[in-house]
Amino acid sequence: MQRLWTLALAGIFALCFSGAAQAVDAQFSGNWDFAFGWTDNLDFADKDGEDDFMARQRFRTQAAFVVSKDLRGVLMFEIGNLEWGRDPEGNKVGRGAGGNIDTDGVNVETKLAYVDWVIPSTDASVRMGLQYIVLPDAVGRGNPVLNSDVAALAVTVPFSEQVGLTAVWARPFDVSSGDGSDNHSLADEMDIFALILPVNGEGWSFTPWAAYARAGASSGLLEYVLGASAANNALGFDPGSFSSSGGDSADIWWGGLALGVTAFDPLTFGLNAIYGHLGKLEYDGEFTDNQGTVQNGSWDFRTAGWFLAATVDYKLDWGSVGLFGWYSTGDDEDDARDGEYGRLPAIGFDNGFAPTSMGGPGSYSIGTDTVFSATYLGTWGIGVQLADWSFVEDLRHTLRFAYYRGTNDHEVVENGDALAFSGEAVYLTDKDSAFEINFNSLYKIYENLNLILETGYIHLDLDEDVWDDDDISAAWKAQILLRYSF
């Protein structure tokens, strides 16, 4: 009898899952990446005993559960970046764990988790959950304001084939949500609201957009904006000392447009223009000032600035020739002395602005990048490239040269008023510059398997009178990457 009950239950489960399989179409995709190679002087300082060799992997797997063209759910999981032979915290649990002997790491991360659905009897679609949000970009190198995964609700309404509207509400921070401690206060929260209006014509596209955010002093925004920058160590600012107990919230707003022109194909153009303003974020608590002195009290943080980026490309039978450039306003000493900075406020830049594949976050997969900056705020630059040129089947190359220079007033550093934002590994003044060379090759081994060679070289030139340090060495990398896509 027990055997009969077991068989009956097994049959019921089989019927249930069979019915679910007919109702839901599970579609799987992903990128499984490996990287091996050498780097040197990534902090632009030639040190003895550097570990120059790297071997790492990252697996991203996405599952889409599709009921119909009007309803689907998406999950993406990530394992990595996992360094071979290493456990970052000395145990088997946490991000990047499991790389050393016996592997067995508890290291699966939730990357995306959202639902797409169409509002019944309309053409409006909704995406809600953990999703990838990037503000408009017609240059193809990213938007430095918001280019990241975040918890959000996005509604898209197509008015016609040429015009649509997307409204976004994202919540990057909420410190005490649901835990019963001062849940009615906005001091620990941050919300972003954005409107995007893409207009597409024959051979051109024009996308104006606007965004507004309200950030509480205790939301964690200040720690995020200032706390992840390696450059602050060189500037004598300790970003790990924040311990906020209150303060006033700040209003932040942005306006921008993205313009693309393909009417003159094979000649194409792209332009991004952004202005942003972060009002006074008053911070009450313990912090370390720019001279390294621990203080208790109130500290005001404000910043506002422009960012422009443009590209011109000419397509040939064997590849394309491109010219690109950008300009971002920097800090002025007269304003910085009063706690007001001149760079565009940026929030959420996992992918940021990527004019290059070593200094910026432009690696094909998990190669070493963002050595210089994730956003290139406070700089201007110009570059030229030969992209995707090929004379052999399944093999293509990109050769790129870029020169960039700071727009921050050198007196800001000399007077000890400089602050680097998150993602800025180097704070460049108007007396500092750098040039970078990238040479990358991609070979398609199979339809779903690519072999990539990434090489890069960055020469940094810091003014000795500003920094009082001439011990600067060039950074370089040479890495082989393998990507399995499905």
Structural summary, described in words:
The chain is mainly beta. The protein has one domain (24-485): Porin. 9% of the residues lie in helices and 51% in strands. It has helices spanning 2-23, 221-227, 231-234, 333-336, 410-414, 464-467; strands at residues 25-40, 53-68, 71-83, 108-118, 125-134, 147-158, 164-174, 189-196, 199-201, 204-215, 243-246, 250-261, 267-288, 294-316, 319-328, 340-341, 379-392, 395-406, 433-446, 449-461, 475-485. The chain has an 18-stranded antiparallel β-barrel. Strand 12 (250-261) and strand 13 (267-288) form a beta hairpin. The longest helix has 22 residues, at 2-23. It is globular and about 65 Å long. The chain starts with a helix and ends with a strand. Residues 1-21 have low confidence and may be disordered.
Give a summary of the structure in a few sentences.
By secondary structure, the protein is mainly beta.
What topology does this entry show?
Blueprint: H1 2-23, E1 25-40, E2 53-68, E3 71-83, E4 108-118, E5 125-134, E6 147-158, E7 164-174, E8 189-196, E9 199-201, E10 204-215, H2 221-227, H3 231-234, E11 243-246, E12 250-261, E13 267-288, E14 294-316, E15 319-328, H4 333-336, E16 340-341, E17 379-392, E18 395-406, H5 410-414, E19 433-446, E20 449-461, H6 464-467, E21 475-485
Parallel strand pairs: 14-16
Antiparallel strand pairs: 1-2, 1-21, 2-3, 3-4, 4-5, 5-6, 6-7, 7-8, 8-10, 9-10, 10-12, 11-13, 12-13, 13-14, 14-15, 15-17, 17-18, 18-19, 19-20, 20-21
